[in-house]
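Posting this for the archive.
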Amino acid sequence: MLKIAFDPGYLDMLKNHVFDIDSDASVNLGGLPVINRYATLKRYLKQKDIEMNTYDMYSDFKDIDLWIMMEPGLRKYLFILKNFINPRKVLFFILEPNIVNPWGWKYLPFYRFFHKIFLSWSSDLAKKYPKQFVEFKVPVPFDSTRYKHFLSNAKKNLCILMQSNKASPVRGELYSLRREIIRYFEKRGDALLDLYGPGWNTEDVSKFGKVTPFYTNLYKGFSPDKWETFSEYWFAFCIQNSIPAGDFEYDPFMAMATGTVPIYLPPSNVDEYIPSDTYINYNNFKNLDDLVSYLQVFKGTREYEEMCQRGWEYINSERYRPFTTEKFCEDVYKAIRKMIS
């Protein structure tokens, strides 16, 4: 049996908590289906006669055949050196874009020669290094049995934005756009946007990187169930960290799964994956005034309901398969096969 050591990148996910959907690590994510994909992956690999545990579950690292690690970085390489791990046995996930992990992207041309295979959502990396990069998409599974309940929820307000208070000096970041949107709605004075997420309206922002405190009267706190909260709004702003080709985050799909229409600023290759008639493209409006005027007229109309229905049909169709946990498991297994071949 092949033995894989998994490094989740967070201490609260060790002791195999990264594979337990009932763990505190899972609960603290507020409904984001992160743990789900790794729990499914562990079960999938077991069927392939592959054992996977977090690395702390192995008493002797010599028993480990392969390592899967999150995010290449200086600390990870110090860990590799300290524990005499052969880099050729390390399969890295590159999950974060360059604005979140600038070190990983800056030094990729150098450290990639130490490794055999990488996993990344990046369409550009997969094209540039086709023999070394296995492309995957972050899976966004959903509970279809909750959809009728979500549709029955009354709408609290026009728009929701649910993101962390973050900042980045790297070109291409969209954190500043999130702040611009918040300030715009704040200045309108009609409170048509509700803000959720960690790091707002507090001085305690050290864990969010080089970011300054941000206060606004639109802030509603942290939602323990992102799905439920999304369903209580007509529209959800889906502004990612950045939008490099191939990077698709949770929000637009979670909106579609909860009867909410996404206002989406998409990556350049979005049309390869998501039908354009399932979301409102942020790029199609000259400014926020035009966008909000459109939203106020569009909400509750037959056309609105039809867009919701198209989104629901899409995420239940074969075209959505790249974002399923099944496809994610297949892609990871493909990378593992390449590693051991």
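The two ends are 15 Å apart (CA to CA). The CA atoms of residues 263 and 280 lie 5 Å apart.
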